[in-house]
Design brief:
With about 525 residues, this protein is an alpha/beta fold. It is built from 20 helices and 19 strands. The chain has three domains: about 200 residues, FAD/NAD(P)-binding domain (3-Layer(bba) Sandwich); about 180 residues, Protoporphyrinogen oxidase, mitochondrial, domain 2 (Polyamine Oxidase, Chain A, domain 2, Alpha-Beta Complex); about 90 residues, no CATH class. Helix 1 links the parallel strand 1 and strand 2.
């Protein structure tokens, strides 16, 4: 059990790190010291501001089937009631969720709906092939499933996989689907299938009202979500403010370069500050949200050679977003009535209603498109304009990552014009944002990751949490839950870390361990 005047050193001020800091200082009375390498809070969940317009890197739906997480978020930023969004800044909006796939220069509902409109866009011949291949996969599934391609084929049939999944997925990971572990699909796609999508359509037809919790709905099929008025970074800036107010410390532009271990415990970390000053931070507990690769490097020559080799070769994918401000989009449709707008006029006439669009077209590199107007109208300084994020997946140091900003902007404009989403003449302004190590990847030495995990878990007072901290493609809520469960363990005197790693390995991870919420006293929170 923790005692008074103990300290926890936390590497990284993203959702996991800041959640851990808040939980430690409020529930355990442990003083957190958060060391953040960059000059911003929130990690990939930060909000970037450019000339009054705000960008959400990657898109963060604040939705979780964990009551603990949803409550935690709403305790920080309460839900806007009536017209409060116009007068109050620190609130959550309820937003409609819409994602579609762009293929054959047409928009298709996502998750795929085998509706009349979809079948007409695909054509009779392709539709027949989709049905036949799906039937074949149901009757003769591939066994054993060894890669992501086989996972998708078993779940959707080969033809549907080739039509709607292959091109986008390979843009994300930079390699063929048959070179990626099936574990990624099992974690990210979970229970989604054609059967569940059809059941969901039938439920929609008979349901009179949808609860924001949407407990009975597969996560990929949710219809609405919470969202901070000024983007995800607003949540983490507020959490950081509270942590420091309660006595915690957050040190920005502080790069951890050394981790000291003695007798199976971490005793201190060494970090370089913004002006080159080196400082040593001692603590009783240590939380790491930095990449496993960087953590192992910081542990130095004492790490066994096989662990060093595996960690050094762990793959990551990186992310470039090109923000584009336009007069209007070329692709248009009648704007449907959007629920949960909290009093704001956020439906520019004819603006498509998607939060993001998956670009399945194989003749362009752009992988996904965000329409920031539809996340929150307050992300856009001028409601008459359209504010887009064209997303590119790459590897740090490759051609896409290294292109000068002006070339990335030119590429995004040219590609979106090529596939008939925008007219280049309507672009008013643009900016570029890069995010390294956005996606921990499930190939390369990942097959031997358990060796690294076993070694790092051997340090009794070291807790790996969050997406990069665990090299696990967690959403924001899962990352937060890993931090919460780690603090639960400290409070309960639990030494095993199995329950931390178990977060997001089951479809009902949030229902499986009710004692987690009991430990927290039902304290609220949330992210995507």
């Amino acid at each position: 059990m923790p005692s008074a005047k103990q300290t926890a050193v936390i590497i990284g001020a993203g959702p996991a790190g800041l959640t851990a800091a808040y939980e430690l200082v409020t529930r355990a009375g442990i003083r957190p010291v958060v060391l953040e390498r960059s000059a911003y809070l929130g990690g990939i969940s930060r909000t970037i501001e450019y000339k009054g317009n705000r960008m959400d890197l990657g898109g963060h739906r604040f939705f979780s089937k964990s009551d603990r997480v949803m409550d935690w978020w709403l305790a920080r930023l309460p839900l806007a009631q009536g017209g409060e969004a116009e007068t109050k800044d620190f609130v959550m909006l309820v937003r409609s969720r819409k994602s579609r796939i762009y293929f054959l220069r047409k928009l298709f509902e996502y998750p795929i709906q085998l509706s009349r409109a979809t079948l007409m866009k695909l054509g009779a011949r392709r539709t027949f092939r989709i049905g036949l291949s799906y039937l074949k996969s149901m009757l003769f599934p591939i066994k054993p499933v060894e890669n992501l391609e086989q996972f998708f084929i078993n779940r959707f049939g080969r033809e549907l996989y080739l039509t709607f999944f292959k091109s986008y997925t390979e843009k994300v990971w930079g390699r063929p689907c048959d070179h990626i572990s099936a574990e990624w699909g099992a974690q990210r796609v979970k229970g989604l299938s054609i059967r569940k999508a059809l059941v969901h359509i039938l439920q929609q037809a008979t349901r009179s009202k949808q609860d924001i919790a949407q407990k009975s709905t597969e996560t990929s099929l949710i219809e609405q979500f919470l969202y901070p008025k000024f983007g995800p970074g607003q949540m983490w800036e507020e959490v950081a403010r509270k942590v420091t107010e309660l006595g915690g410390e957050i040190v920005m532009q502080c790069d951890v370069t050394g981790v000291e271990a003695e007798n199976g415990r971490i005793v201190a970390v060494t970090a370089t500050g913004p002006e080159g000053a080196v400082r040593r931070y001692e603590g009783n507990y240590f939380f790491s949200t930095t990449s496993v690769q960087e953590l192992v490097r910081a542990l130095g020559p004492g790490v066994p050679a096989p662990v060093r080799e595996i960690a050094e070769a762990l793959p990551y994918r990186d992310f470039v977003t090109v923000g584009l401000l336009l007069n209007k989009l070329k692709i248009r449709e009648p704007a449907p009535k959007r629920t949960g707008s909290c009093g704001a006029d956020d439906s520019q006439a004819g603006l498509i209603s998607d939060n993001w669009i998956y670009i399945q077209e194989p003749d362009v590199l752009v992988g996904r498109l965000q329409i920031f107007n539809n996340w929150s109208p307050y992300l856009v300084s001028d409601a008459s304009k359209v504010w887009l994020g064209a997303e590119y997946f790459c590897s740090e140091g490759d051609e896409l990552w290294s292109q000068p900003d002006e070339q990335m902007i030119a590429l995004a404009i040219a590609e979106l014009a090529k596939i008939q989403i925008i007219d280049a003449a309507n672009v008013l302004d643009a900016t570029v944002a890069r995010m390294p190590k956005t996606y921990p990847a499930y190939f390369g030495t990942y097959a031997r990751f358990d060796e690294v995990r076993q070694y790092l878990d051997g340090f009794a007072n070291l807790f790996l949490i969050g997406r990069n901290g665990m090299h696990k493609y967690n959403n924001q809520d899962h990352s937060m839950l890993t931090a919460m469960v780690a603090v639960d363990n400290i409070l309960a005197g639990v030494t095993s870390k199995e329950n931390i790693w178990a977060v997001n390995t089951e479809e009902e991870y949030h229902e499986a361990k009710q004692n987690v919420a009991a430990h927290a006293g039902r304290q609220p929170e949330r992210e995507e």
